[in-house]
């Protein structure tokens, strides 16, 4: 089995909800590549970081009261050593994993910067909305449709300012508008959310 298949299997066997699972990892990977198309990134580093960036949040690896980005870094370090991953690339992957969250400063490498951008952008627009609503009742912060709506509103307001590259900023504006259009329509069609 090649390394990429092994990474996919790790995510598939982790108990990850679909909002954070393999398809999220693929979207983050491909969007990172799209946003950085003017650069030459290390594809092995980028793919590995994209596949493992949320492992610390998955049921098999999560630890209560431990930030999932830090936990993901520890899990990733162990997994990559077991997989005989190139040792000189491990610190770059770990930096990208540790700094992928919107509340973190971007990591030092281009791979880390674009992974973070793509992960932030996957929380906005139509795909971000789908992810939020799929988590109702499965995430401690999103127990009701109203919680998902409030989180979508917060993301639409805050996340575009967390994106730092030109390509990321352009896409953040578009996805923010998608989110706000959806929320306005939902509000109109549900008597200001009363009928949800």
TrEMBL record:
It holds the Pfam family HD. InterPro entries: HD/PDEase_dom, HD_domain, HDIG_dom. Gene3D superfamilies: Hypothetical protein af1432. Residues 21-124 form the HD domain. SUPFAM superfamilies: HD-domain/PDEase-like. NCBIfam families: HDIG. This is Putative domain HDIG-containing protein.
